[in-house]
UniProtKB/TrEMBL annotation:
Source species, domain of life: Bacteria
Coiled-coil ranges from the UniProt annotation: none
Family from the record: Belongs to the glycosyltransferase 87 family.
One of the record's GO cellular component terms: plasma membrane
Protein name: Mannosyltransferase
Membrane topology (UniProt): Multi-pass membrane protein
Source species: Lawsonella clevelandensis
Main subcellular localisation: membrane
Transmembrane parts of this sequence: 12-33, 75-91, 98-116, 136-165, 177-201, 213-235, 272-293, 320-336, 348-368, 388-406
Keywords noted in UniProt: Cell membrane, Glycosyltransferase, Membrane, Transferase, Transmembrane, Transmembrane helix
Gene Ontology molecular function, alphabetical: hexosyltransferase activity
InterPro entries membership: GT87
Location of this chain's protein in the cell: Cell membrane
Length: 427
């Protein structure tokens, strides 16, 4: 690398660091996550307290000590997650909580960069302009006010970190020998990312499928070596108890299973209906992901794959729906660029508007919840209470009906002629 190129690269890193500082400052000034207990993140407290308890010889899948504000919640993650949380658990709580928030902020920045690159692949902001970086960090600050991102920071959740790892693994510009290892790690931390094997299968990237499964096995064998009894217990018993995470019918469980539970279906019948509906929805999404991959729209395919994970999982709290944020942005770009034609433009504008409305207003907060109140919802309350699920199903139907894939296939070639600086695709 020439000195001038090195200086330019260092300048980009410095600018990125400056952007993160500005965003962090904005979070502190404009974004008090918890008015009653500023700086307190209850889910991170579970990670921190549970991991410390385990390091001191405690039984992690039993009742862990009370959290800092007197509540008691179970540790629900696989054993590998304990190893990930160890660096935070050995630090004082306040310091580790701040560091974890900064890691989540970095993850949000990385995902935003990939989103920005995907947007540019449609011919938007293809030339490098100084204001583009300003636009990026303003967009990140705006994203902080969407419900899934806001609650991720509020609770101290791991969603953005997992999203970053999956995005880096799946959307790097070239396939690396290690591609699949990060997805394997996310599956080891939280089982839901197993769904992202669909992305590699649709790309016919069998090497990455093997690397994902192989690395998942290695991570868990290492956990078995380090903590044999805990690992055996999790994989033979704890994994079957999904209600440790919470009640299926709770308002903020925005999966298909959650919707069925709120309609009052009993366990046996609900499980059967959920399996059938989730299978049908999963197959429809698989068709769309395959079509998007065929059109070389890898980032859009990955985001839709993320929606599949949210819809088909037994429990998907609303803060798990971070995947919806980039997807809403992409739909807005499709509307703007009239993909596939101007006659279907209204479809994408409608979905973009509805998606943004859900993300920024958080309609769930206006509904009765807790104490099984969800089981007595009126039809109109169900309409708003299943907002994430309904929006996702509408998006799936629209993608199957409008079929923008042929137009999307031609998009990268058009951009390449327009500007050599523009990213052609995220391969």
């Amino acid at each position: 690398m020439q000195p001038a190129q090195r200086l330019s690269q260092n300048g980009k890193y410095a600018l990125a660091a400056f952007q993160l500082i500005l965003i962090a400052a904005a979070m502190v000034v404009f974004f008090p996550f918890n008015a009653e207990n500023p700086g307190y993140h209850i889910d991170f407290d579970v990670y921190w307290t549970g991991t410390r308890f385990f390091l001191n010889g405690g039984y992690i899948y039993g009742k862990i000590p009370l959290l800092h504000h007197g509540t008691s919640l179970p540790f629900t993650y696989p054993p590998v997650a304990l190893l990930v949380f160890v660096p935070f658990a050995i630090l004082p709580y306040q310091l580790s909580s701040i560091l974890f928030s900064l890691v989540s902020l970095l993850a949000l920045y990385v995902v935003a960069r990939y989103t920005f690159t995907a947007v540019r692949s449609y011919g938007v902001m293809v030339e490098d302009k100084p204001w583009h970086n300003v636009f990026l960090w303003v967009a990140i600050i705006v994203a902080l006010f969407t419900a899934p991102v806001r609650f991720t920071f509020l609770f101290g959740q791991i969603n953005l970190l997992l999203m970053m790892l999956v995005t880096i693994d799946c959307c790097t510009s070239r396939r690396r020998w290690w591609t699949g290892m990060l997805v394997g790690l996310t599956i080891s931390i939280k089982l839901t990312p197993m769904v992202f094997l669909l992305y590699f299968v649709c790309r016919r990237d069998w090497k990455s499928v093997g690397m994902t499964l192989g690395s998942f096995l290695v991570y868990n064998l290492f956990a078995l070596l380090v903590m044999p009894s805990t690992t055996r217990l999790y994989w033979t018993k704890i994994i079957r108890d999904s209600e440790r995470i919470g009640a299926y019918h709770y308002c903020r469980n925005q999966s298909i299973n959650g919707a069925l539970a709120r309609f009052g279906l009993h366990d046996s019948s609900r499980s059967t209906v959920w399996f059938i509906v989730a299978l049908i929805v999963g197959l429809l999404i698989a068709v769309i992901v395959w079509q998007l991959v065929k059109a070389q729209q890898y980032f859009a395919a990955l985001m839709l794959n993320g929606i599949a994970a949210n819809l088909c999982s037994p429990i998907s709290w609303d803060h798990h729906w971070t995947w919806i944020v980039p997807l809403v942005i992409l739909l807005g770009v499709w509307a703007w660029k009239k993909i596939p034609t101007s006659s279907t433009q209204w479809v994408w504008w409608t979905l973009t508007g509805l998606g943004a409305l859900i993300l920024f207003t958080d309609p769930l907060r206006f509904l009765p919840m807790n104490g099984d109140k969800e089981l007595s919802w009126t039809p109109i309350q169900h309409f708003f209470g299943e907002s994430y699920t309904l929006w996702s199903l509408l998006t799936i139907i629209a993608l199957l009906a409008v079929r923008p894939f042929s137009r999307l296939t031609n998009t990268p070639r058009t951009i390449k002629k327009t500007s050599e600086k523009a990213p052609v695709s995220l391969q």
